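User: quick one, sequence for these tokens?
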């Protein structure tokens, strides 16, 4: 694997995405009310968009 240097904003986006994914994995989804599930999905969708943008930036290098 090559050593890719991330910029500060890229590293921050990656860290937030990793934390949100970890939180989603540990959440007891069965007990969450529907509005909370919707917010969780929307947050993960936003993080996915950010990660796609980072990958596109890295692909342009």
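Assistant:
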């Amino acid at each position: 694997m090559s050593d890719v240097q991330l910029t500060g904003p890229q590293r921050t986006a990656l860290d937030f995405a990793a934390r949100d994914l970890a939180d989603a994995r540990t959440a007891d989804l069965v007990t969450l009310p529907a509005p909370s599930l919707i917010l969780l999905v929307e947050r993960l969708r936003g993080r996915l968009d950010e990660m796609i943008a980072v990958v596109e930036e890295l692909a342009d290098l």
